[in-house]
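Input.
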Amino acid sequence: LVLPLVLRVLALAALVLALARPQDVQGLVRTTTEGIALQLVIDRSSSMTETIDIDGRSTTRLDAVKQVASEFIEGNGDDLKGREGDMIGVIAFGSYADTICPLVREHDALLELVGDIRVSPLRSDQGTAIGDAVSLAAARLREAEKEIARGLGDDAARDPGAKPDFSIKSKAVILLTDGRNNRGQIEPLQAAQLCADWGITLYTIGIGGGYTELAGLRIPMGGSLDERTMTQMAVATGGRFFLADDAQSL
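Output.
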């Protein structure tokens, strides 16, 4: 009689325990950091094959931009500390603007994609669509918070109140070009106004100077750079225009 009674008590205790649905709750602790969301907008039009001096040697303007952009992202152990933790994306443009890399915080793949940027071999893609490129960059930045929210993934499914581990404290576009707008649907000043409307600061960097080879002679390049428009674009957003006539100033 004692054994059946013990079994019934144990069964009842198990039933009560099951109804209580005890759970092992593990809290998800997320540390939120602040950073900048940046879009690099890099000119890859045909004029970017002209030369510029860097570290005592002659290289193309595009290769100089790619080297400096990589040092800006990764750091160079000297005056550039790198952008660790910031969200960075890259737009490249000739006659058309393309997203080379979406906004990311892990920069290994980003650096590879920057290194792979080339001047398009298509004659139809060798113009300079500055307005379209800056507009695309601004649109990407406008959606940056949504990209971060999508990155929550399963955490948001488990905890609807989960917050992302990264918040954006400011947004900026850095335009690097050696020319003037001659392609595209959107004028540069219209693109700058989009940036201003969406709280995005635009910094414009004009790449000038350098040399071209003619009959074995190095001839200084004149500039087709539209400094006035680039200055107006930056000022409209609270940014600045910079002129880089050699790789050091770049």
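The chain is about 35% helix and 25% strand.
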